[in-house]
Amino acid sequence: MISVLVVDDERPARQRICALLEGHPDFAVVGECGNGREAVSAIREIHPDLVFLDVQMPEVDGFGVAEEIGADQMPMVVFATAYDEFALRAFDAHAIDYLLKPFDEERFQRTLNRVRAQLSGGRADMEERLRALVHEMSSQAVRMDRIPVRVGPRTRFVDLADVDYMEADDNYVRLHVGERSYLIRETMSALESRLPPSRFVRIHRSLIVNVARVQEVEPGFSGEYVVFLTCGARLTSTRTYRARIQAVLHL
Q1: Cα–Cα distance for residue pair 97/91, rounded to 1 Å
Q2: What is the pLDDT of residue 155?
Q3: The pTM is what?
Q4: 36-40, 57-61, 173-177 — which is least confidently predicted?
Q5: What is the mean pLDDT of residues 175-199?
Q6: 118 — phi, psi (to 5°)?
Q7: Which CATH class name applies to 147-249?
Q8: 2-122 belongs to which homologous superfamily?
């Protein structure tokens, strides 16, 4: 029996993986976690054989979980991610299995077959491949100081320092840069995971703000803030991100 921990900050995503596993009696779900910190504790306590690990989670993301546990102590891991060009390249380069959301049952079945084969063959070089992946993604986060955007047939590199704020737009993110805006194919969570946390703060599920562009904040009655930027934008946070805003802006 292969014990499984399912980690995703979105409950429907966890439910889908659990439902797909019900048809495979050699897998048993032993726990679910809704964030990276819970996942670190559960892995240390339960010691599952396999973890389905969402990449894009607030605070501690999937790579942060693997880094904190350590490659030599991590169970076998299958990363699940929305489209993230950097992460997908890294998974392919290091031969780490992943599920690209949304995935179908056939793709999930192939992943389970690989899991069975790898677990029966021992950990082999899995630890080294995972260690290299986490190192690359951590380095990527540190190095990111420009964002590539498509402008017609060309790719333009936008300095992070020039971005006023970022706004979710369905499966894209819109960068607001002065009087211009650029649409990039990226999720907010994926982009947030590669931004320097001292320079950018998420204030809403759909908004990330350049801290240096915050001119004023005004507290609301329900725990939210109205954030005024130097570019003239007036944005409203939600109570969910109150503690993070206070920490970054030293309120």
Answers
A1: 7
A2: 85
A3: 0.57
A4: 57-61
A5: 84
A6: -70, -40
A7: mainly beta
A8: Response regulator (3.40.50.2300)
